[in-house]
Design goal:
Blueprint: H1 5-24, H2 31-40, E1 45-46, H3 47-54, H4 58-70, E2 74-79, E3 82-90, H5 92-112, H6 118-134
Antiparallel strand pairs: 1-3, 2-3
Helix pairs in contact: 1-5, 2-4, 3-4
Protein name: DNA-binding MarR family transcriptional regulator
InterPro entries: HTH_MarR-typ, MarR/SlyA-like, WH-like_DNA-bd_sf, WH_DNA-bd_sf
Domain HTH marR-type: 2-133
Length: 142
């Protein structure tokens, strides 16, 4: 099976996913909540766009955001130009959690890529980007 790249990639993906889940657990958040708060650290977004970016059903995102709001990691407010829409923003406490997440993920990535040269990492990133463009199955974590 060593010559089956798909299986090798899947096995490695499961291993990396498990390591990242363990690292993210330091925050007490689930992976989807981590992704949401990390995306919100890049700037506010309306709720529908956030659902699209995270590739989740809007009803699923409501539950994620409820949990983030209950933990004071994110807030929702009505968009002034369209009261039917919600703008989602990260809180200061959320920014602290994102800093912890980045530190935990950096540690996993440092260990994972320790034997690769910078040129190898650049090439790997390019190859993974190309593979990602052919993917059509949604992410099904949590």
């Amino acid at each position: 099976m060593a010559d089956r790249l798909g299986f090798t990639l899947a096995r490695l993906g499961l291993s990396v996913s498990a390591r990242l889940h363990t690292a993210m657990a330091v925050t007490g958040l689930k992976p989807r909540q981590c992704l949401a708060v990390m995306r919100l650290a890049e700037g506010p977004l309306n709720q529908l766009d956030l659902a699209r970016e995270l590739d989740v059903d809007p009803s699923v995102l409501v539950a994620v955001l409820n949990d983030l709001e209950n933990r004071d990691l994110a807030t929702r407010r009505r968009a002034p130009e369209d009261r039917r829409r919600h703008i989602v923003e990260i809180t200061e406490r959320g920014r602290a959690v994102v800093a912890d997440l980045h530190h935990a993920i950096d540690t996993v990535e440092h260990d994972l890529f320790a034997d690769l040269a910078p040129a190898d990492l650049t090439r790997l990133a390019g190859l993974l980007d190309r593979l990602g463009k052919t993917e059509d199955a949604p992410c099904s974590e949590d």
